[in-house]
Amino acid sequence: MLFPVRPFLVTFAHQSIIMKLLENKVAIVTGAARGIGEGIALKLAEHGAHIAFTYVSDSSAEKAAALESRLTALGVQAKAWKSNAGDFAQCEQFVNEVVGKFGTVDICVNNAGISKDNLLLRLTPDQWDEVMNVNLKSVFNMTKQVIRPMMKARKGSIINMSSIVGIRGNAGQASYAASKAGIIGLTRSVAMELGSRNVRCNAIAPGFIETDMTHYLKEGEAAKTFLEKIPLGRFGSAEEVGNTTLFLASDLSSYITGQVISTCGGLNI
Ligand code: NAI
Question: Looking at the domain assignment, is residue 117 inside a domain?
Fold first, then answer.
């Protein structure tokens, strides 16, 4: 009796591993020339999604072109746009062009972000405004645009990059924490407004992920202190945030909206 069952299970398991979860979907990823955004773009493309991504500075143009090539080598269409996520008009133009080129938008990952860390006593109004604009207003800018094609199609997944710091705060990061907490409120509100149209909106709250943004945390005593607080005992990778994003982008999470998933090695326990 066991013999005919085993090959079936092996075949089934094999098929589920190679199954692409986002075949022919169109995904936007903001700020993807490096770091977590790059990891997300690659992961979604591995699963068959066509990728439209942004970068903001001329110095990232070379990296953006290299990513475009890596993505197309995975067999999907990919195009980089120079577009500032903090600028409403640029987001409007970007999304219009994406819809013009790809026909629709199924997935939008609002990943672009910056930090300008400073104790509140020293934090300037300009630093506050810059962080709010790039981290929080950008999510409003992009979401306003992508919900049009998503509502028309009666499906869509919006994924916003928050942070564990947005949930619990952090000394020296008042503006960053406030912007990331704001993203959670925005995420839940969008989920409530658009659930009836089958447009889902969720947030990811990464812990310490190894990227250019956190490179200074990896050295010396500070690194040891951080690692001691992480139950899994290591920093996370951009690919691991990409895996969470893939789950939220795909139909595997079809009954999940308005949630915050912490990809943080247990740091939030
Ligand atoms: P990163 O600094 O390596 O990458 C951020 C990307 O956003 C860069 O490519 C940058 O050019 C782009 N960007 C910045 N301003 C932009 C704008 N106005 N318009 C378009 N693109 C813009 O940072 P990382 O680590 O990859 O972070 C990605 C996201 O994940 C950010 O939102 C960050 O706040 C969040 N995050 C990161 C964590 C980490 O440990 N690295 C932890 C929690 C959240």
Answer: yes
For residue 248, what are the CA distances in angstroms to 61, 118, 202, 222? Answer: 28, 33, 7, 32
- Within a domain: residue 7? no
Q: What is the CATH number of the domain that holds 37?
A: 3.40.50.720
Whether the pTM exceeds 0.90: the reply is: yes
216 has catalytic annotation: no
- Which atom of ligand 1 approaches the CA of 32 most closely? 9
Q: Is residue 111 part of a domain?
A: yes
pLDDT digits 0-9 by tens, 184-226: 999 999 999 999 999 999 999 999 999 998 887 777 887 888 8
Confidence band of 17 (pLDDT split at 50, 70, 90): low
What is the domain count for the chain? 1
**Closest residue by CA, ligand 1 atom 21:** 31
Ligand 1 and 39: CB distance under 6 A: no
**250 within some domain:** yes
- Establish whether residue 211 lines the binding site of ligand 1, counting it when its CB lies within 6 angstroms of any ligand atom: yes
Q: Which of 61, 29, 56, 57 is nearest to 42 (CA)?
A: 29
Is the CB of 163 within 6 Å of ligand 1? Answer: yes
Query: What's the pLDDT tens digit per position in 51-60?
Result: 999 999 999 9
Domain extent at residue 247: 21-263
